[in-house]
Amino acid sequence: WGDYHHPALSETEGDYDGRWLYINDRANGRIAMVDLIDFKTKQIIDIPNIGTSHGGCFVTPNSEYVHISSMTPWPYLAPDGYAPPSDYAKYYRGASCWMAIDPTTGRIDMDRSFQIELPPYTQDLADAGKLSSFGFGFINSYNTEMATGGNLEDPLKSLESTAIANDFDFLHVIDWQKAEKLVADGKTEDMNGMKMIRLDVAAAEGVLHFVPEPRNPHGVDVNPTGDYMVVSGKLDPHASVFSIEKIKAAIAAKDYEGTDDFGVPILTMASCLEATV
């Protein structure tokens, strides 16, 4: 069974070209490719290192990649593939997956695809930058508390209450062109058959930055000019509008509030925010 959520059309110069369609399986961490010449499914891939997905599918402006990311973190760092919730921060991780598209057939080329290790937050919807934000990808997140929930005997630790304690979660800002170069330079590890940029490398090399966003967001959308990323939340009544130029400037100036528990730099929210509606 599957739980298909977010179909994405192939693109040329940032506009839909109608050649191929990609869709994620939210329940199982799979991706499918459909050829729109005959509307037949040509590929179904069970992506390593993710068990669920929500941040996909989203296609880059010239169909270089289709992006899909994990939703619930997965214990792929554990020696035998399993770890108890008590080892959540140690062994569980998310993954941002950049699945390379064959420019002739539209099929996913696993040999050119790669992943970026993410902290064990719950990654949500995503979008690809274009024009002024070309080369960047953006992913919402929630449960930066890394809560795992309780049970009937421990009602005060219910996931619903413990996963909303923080006022802010993190917008993930990913420079996929820098990531591409790291892959070309061999700065990856094989993780269950996928080339993966490890989290410490992604943070140190400027591939991954965070921007605080109001708690439990659900949706990040890049506007048609690529200048702004609009974030809305389920538990916050505001829409927050972030500027790519301000984000770039904050990255260049190392305008950080600090780092998270995994060493990822957190950009100063006020320096990146264009408006709140």
UniProtKB/TrEMBL annotation:
Subcellular location: Cell envelope
Signal peptide, first to last residue: none
SUPFAM superfamilies tied to this protein: Nitrous oxide reductase, N-terminal domain
Keywords from the named record: Copper, Metal-binding
An annotated Gene Ontology molecular function: metal ion binding
InterPro entries hit by this protein: N2O_reductase_N, NosZ/Cyto_c_oxidase_sub2, WD40/YVTN_repeat-like_dom_sf
Primary localisation category: other
Protein name: NosZ
Source organism of the structure: uncultured microorganism
Lineage: unclassified sequences, environmental samples
Gene: nosZ
